[in-house]
What does this fold into?
Amino acid sequence: MEARGRFPFFPRDDQDVSDEQREIRALARRFAEQEIRPVLAEYEAREEVPLELLRRMGELGFFGITVPEAYGGAGLDHWTYAGLMEELGPYGSIRTVVSAQQSLVATPILHFGTEAQRQRYLPDLAAGRIFGAYGLTEPGAGSDAASLQTQATRDGDHWILHGQKTFITNGNLADLFVLFAQTDPGQGHRGITAFLVERDFGVQTTPLKGKLGLRASDTATVFLDRVRVPDSHRLGQVGQGLRIALHTLDHGRIAVAAAAVGTSQACLDLCVRYVQERHQFGRPIGTFQMVQDLLADMAVETEAARMLTYRALAARDRGGRFTQEAAMAKYYATETANRNAGRAVQIHGGYGFFEEYEVARLYRDARVYTLYEGTSQIQKLVIGSHLTGLKAFT
Ligand SMILES: Cc1cc2nc3c(=O)[nH]c(=O)nc-3n(C[C@H](O)[C@H](O)[C@H](O)COP(=O)(O)OP(=O)(O)OC[C@H]3O[C@@H](n4cnc5c(N)ncnc54)[C@H](O)[C@@H]3O)c2cc1C
It folds into this structure.
């Protein structure tokens, strides 16, 4: 029996899908299958970042999908970007670089940066000529980001930044950091300010190795030892930092949700093929009802996650806040990706436990989705506070 194809690119009327959206998605799929898939396992085994692939992705414009053309990007919409995330989702080590660069660095510069800051950084970020990193998390401040300890002290027309950030994606590659520091401890979370800090200002980083998944991605601890940052590199207003951080995460969470949908879809596609090839008891295992039960759950939940992701994109397009929709999409899609990766390993039996089978990598990589850019518990608290008007935290 022939395997059924994927779901349509977009749930809306097919006529709503622009040629550009279709082209970018097809390009990403081709690039992933022809250039990423054949080499990724080797880089993962060495815990090495595939810089040559990243350079190629820069040339293809993958780092500047939503950056306006005036700043060197493709000037496309967030649906197109989500399509890219979905296609790259099954290749977590690569996808996470694109997402950190675009959702977490270019986006806040675009929304909160001065014209000079946009012109200075966006063209290079969009082309992948420089890499950016987003530094919010600290050893003592993860979910409770507002309790961060990095200090920024005013010194004339400069700030002195002192502290440490951890788990920072792209940290060792980065030329530019969006960093958050406390400028007025008496003000609590209203005292946090964002800065655009160039590595050359004196930022030190060390690699964090030994990750469960995303083994070919770069993660760093970032050290700020009294780093002098000109006030012209402040991003947004003094005291606006936490707002910038959370606004940025609203965007990032939709990208993570889209990537998780891509992971779920890849698990399903691999399983639909496998259950027709693998025979037990003289028949393809796909004929067994309990295997079909697993496949049906995978398909329904993948599609539900996709719908929630599209709903968050639509809310974003309407303007205003979309925190609730982004949290719902991120929570459901990332939990689904983990469930589906587990089901995919189950369907592959013992073979799924070996790296030779792609489901093993999908299983490891999916694990981080429910942790970074806000854990599932934090997404539920965001959703709960929107429902009740009662906040578990500031
Ligand atoms: C591979 C990787 C890449 C990352 N990249 C970046 C990056 O680029 N930039 C960046 O700034 N950060 C990054 N992070 C950090 C990530 O965002 C944090 O790990 C995450 O926010 C959780 O913080 P934590 O690890 O300190 O866990 P903790 O906050 O210590 O949480 C531990 C557990 O307690 C739960 N918990 C905490 N508070 C509550 C509460 N109020 N109610 C219920 N449960 C609660 C959590 O849900 C979790 O299960 C990355 C992390 C990883 C693993």
Observations:
- Residues 241-277 form the longest helix (37 residues).
- The beta strands are 132-135, 151-155, 158-169, 176-182, 192-198, 204-207, 219-230, 234-235, 279-280, 283-284.
